[in-house]
Amino acid sequence: MPIASNSGITMEELQLGGRNHSLPLEGLKHAITPIGMHYLLTHFDIPLVEAETWRLEIGGLVAKPLSLSLDDVKARPARTLPVTLECAGNGRALLEPRPLSQPWLEGAVGTAEWTGTQLALVLEEAGLAPEAVEVVFTGLDRGIQGEVEHAYERSLPVAEALRDEMLLAYEINGQPLPPQHGFPLRLIVPGWYGMTHVKWLRSITAVDEPFTGYQQGTAYHVRDSEEEQGEPVTRIRPRSLMVPPGIPEFLSRTRFLPAGPCLLEGRAWSGWAPVERVEVSANGGETWSEAALDEPLSDFAWRRWTYEWDAAPGEYELCCRATDQAGNVQPLGQEWNYDGVCNNSVQRVKVVVSES
């Protein structure tokens, strides 16, 4: 992946930024993200899919291959689950030097209510063979990355694929999936970064060896150089984000508010374990105070937090950090990596408090 200086954005990044979009941070006020506010990343092109002719093929190492229409999928038992999705590249543009890819700051996230049928039920119906070790999910989108032409596809170990919460989703927030979110069917993998949630599904294939396609074997690794294999990206690291208080200056987004009581609020989540603590700092992380936590929407969705801040006149750098039940804590800073992934360093919000 090429590297760019943080002194200027490239035309390639502008092209990607124009196609994709992040959550406006004021959208954190919504427990369930409105569809138009939910972050969106499309690797290649959005395919045009006709529901009447689309089929989902389940094959490979199974006893009974299946070919399902959208109506067939919808006829199976349905489940709705609030799930927080976050792009693995969220925070990439904050690294120095900046990996040249989608230039996310901190808003590549959203929480939706996904409705679909459980993946495990479909796999059990097809009858996974004992020798199956992974399940490969292939989308209808196709392109070239790393000089390799390929369909977008990812795999999961069988044990992960059979978890109860895995969904073959056909609705978001009670509505049919729009084209950009994977119509007619997409995979939802609660707790994992967004690259795993394959959109525009066309096939599910059980295999007897680890899948090494480009998006699995090369992309989405934490590594120091292109030559290294590194560690694969899997579950979402803990993160807390704050709704920026007050009002913004148009270009810099510096916040301005009057002195006095100020309710700070935001959302926190982790794919490793439920969030159990959020802390807030008004001095750039030198000292911390504990915030109050609301109940989570589900085991796989963010929690709202609040903190009563008595804002005195002056300039501040507000921060928030999350800790999950597995003991994972957001870091103040993030070590650089070649792909610019898994940067969950704390958010920093510049605030100017005036007398009136």
Could you list some keywords that capture this structure?
five-stranded mixed β-sheet; 356 residues; Sulfite Oxidase, Chain A, domain 2; globular; single chain; 5 helices; Immunoglobulin-like; mainly beta
Q: How would you describe what is shown here?
A:
The protein has two domains: 3-232, Oxidoreductase, molybdopterin-binding domain (Sulfite Oxidase, Chain A, domain 2); 239-354, Immunoglobulin-like, CATH 2.60.40. A hairpin with a 7-residue loop joins β19 and β20. The strands form six sheets. The protein has a six-stranded mixed β-sheet with strand order 16-17-24-23-19-20, with no helix packed on it. The chain has a five-stranded mixed β-sheet with strand order 3-2-12-7-8. Strands 4, 6, 9, 10 and 11 form a five-stranded antiparallel β-sheet that branches. The protein is mostly beta strands and 356 residues long. The protein has helices spanning 11-19, 70-75, 119-126, 158-161, 214-218, and strands at residues 3-4, 56-60, 66-68, 79-86, 98-99, 109-118, 134-145, 148-157, 167-172, 175-176, 186-188, 201-207, 221-222, 231-232, 239-242, 247-248, 255-258, 260-269, 275-281, 289-290, 292-293, 303-311, 314-324, 347-354.
Layout: helices, strands, pairs:
Elements: E1 3-4, H1 11-19, E2 56-60, E3 66-68, H2 70-75, E4 79-86, E5 98-99, E6 109-118, H3 119-126, E7 134-145, E8 148-157, H4 158-161, E9 167-172, E10 175-176, E11 186-188, E12 201-207, H5 214-218, E13 221-222, E14 231-232, E15 239-242, E16 247-248, E17 255-258, E18 260-269, E19 275-281, E20 289-290, E21 292-293, E22 303-311, E23 314-324, E24 347-354
Parallel strand pairs: 2-12, 17-24
Antiparallel strand pairs: 1-5, 2-3, 4-6, 6-9, 7-8, 7-12, 9-10, 9-11, 13-14, 15-18, 16-17, 18-22, 19-20, 19-23, 21-22, 23-24
